[in-house]
Amino acid sequence: MSHLEGAIELIAGRESVIAQILRTVPNKECNMKFTVGDAKNGCHGSMMVEAFAAKDTLKVAFKSEGKGKFKTVSFKFRAIGNRTRITFYSSFYHTRIHDYGSLCGPLIDQVVVYPAA
């Protein structure tokens, strides 16, 4: 399976929040794993994706060269109820290197949440 083919590009800072509510078991530890990258579309520079799950946060720094690179990260969180919201957004605004009128940003893909062992 190829990375980032079904990804979501976060193009507008906090205004580009994406969230989902998951069914969870209260007080159960979970792992969340996801991929961060760029769309190979000329978007470049230092990027930051912030991921939230329950009361936990992970900030993922990513240096984009606009060449389609990616990295996979993970973190643990503790569910606080029967439902837990996971949220992602880009901390910064970016434009393409040859088109300053077009917003762009980091991609997120392959988000997986599973019980911790």
From TrEMBL:
Source organism superkingdom: Eukaryota
Cellular component, GO annotation: extracellular region; plasma membrane
DUF642 domain mapped to chain residues: 7-113
UniProt keywords, alphabetically: Glycoprotein, Secreted, Signal
Compartments reported by the entry: Cell envelope; Secreted
Protein name: DUF642 domain-containing protein
Species, as recorded: Sphenostylis stenocarpa
Species classification: Eukaryota, Viridiplantae, Streptophyta, Embryophyta, Tracheophyta
